[in-house]
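CATEGORY: protein folding

GOAL: derive structure tokens
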Amino acid sequence: MRERVAFTPTQLESALTQLRHMPQVHEAAVLSTCNRTELYCVTEPSGERTILDWLSHFHGLALNDLTPCAYHYLDHEAARHLMRVAVGLDSMVLGEPQILGQLKDAYQSARQVSGLGGELELLFQHTFAVAKQVRTRTGIGQNPVSVAYAAVSLASRIFDDFGRSRALLIGAGETIELVARHLREAGVRNMIVANRTRERAELLAGEFNAEAISLNEIPEALVRSDIVISSTAAPLPILGKGMAERALKKRRHRPIFMVDIAVPRDIEPEVGDLDDIFLYTVDDLNEVIQENRRHRQAAADQAEALIEHGVHVWLHERRIRSGGELIRRYRDRAAELRELSERQAMARLARGEDPEEVVRLLAHQLTNRLLHQPTVALREASGSERRDLLSAAESLLLAPSSTKP
């Protein structure tokens, strides 16, 4: 279902434009990754039903199939969810860093089609600030917590220009697929997938624009590879010391980083004895992962606290913006009344009426016009025994003035 509701880059602009032009949707942004599709929208009441209808139609899905898989959050719960997503607390890999970049891409895409207004703009900007705070104040993104991610993270620390490295992936199962995703997200564009059945290698390679080979082509591919990550179900090692020695000779001893995730091993232990081979096994990674998971969980607890504070700050800023809109409308109304009184006063002056009398009449009319609506509302509140409104009115209307005569 995740695959069926995902948006390709070419679909995204059209999707955002359609959303934005729906009568019930005022603002919209779409986050679509390999693990989630989320729509952040400002809507009329019950707008989530309209969005689900649109999503099912856009992707040609039956609404009954989509609805059980969907979730929605409103107001501060939506803000909390977005912040948790941004810092990786809602990811399969706790604290993974790629999601923040993907969220920033979603924000930019929405801006390009005018999908953002005041509400989402404030929410996204505040979310980015909270995410930065979490990243700088906690260790949430510092320690890998899966074998695949740990392998890629370790490799990225060894190579100065990780994006230019070529990776040889041996196997085509779920672990290698996850490794490929992490490598792609880390910037590696050149990958080779080797597998016992070439068809399966081609299937996985097609997802990442990679090269597909069979296992007997590994010796030649090894010469071209800087990183080797292996995870197969083979009962015996696939890559031996002799093969590695010949590859190093042809590479003029440029080093190769290897991670053997398979159990039993895919790479002979003796390969690690070679000077220009850096070989790690799943045991090496697991020791790191267990320790890192404890550190990340502690950091995640800190992140949750920062997010809660962030939600409260966002709500406060949102209320201020809402109050600012009310103030603007009130001042606009006062300005209309002032302009009306001013036009009438200028007309009287033009007719030659006494200026002092015109000024007195202007002050009287303007005072009455400004006080008329509040006075009517106060009488209605008093008749309905709305003491909450009366108390608020007393604080607003009878507060000590700071204006000096």
Remarks:
- The longest helix spans residues 282-350.
- The chain has three domains: 2-137, 147-290, 354-397.
- The first strand starts at residue 25 and ends at 32.
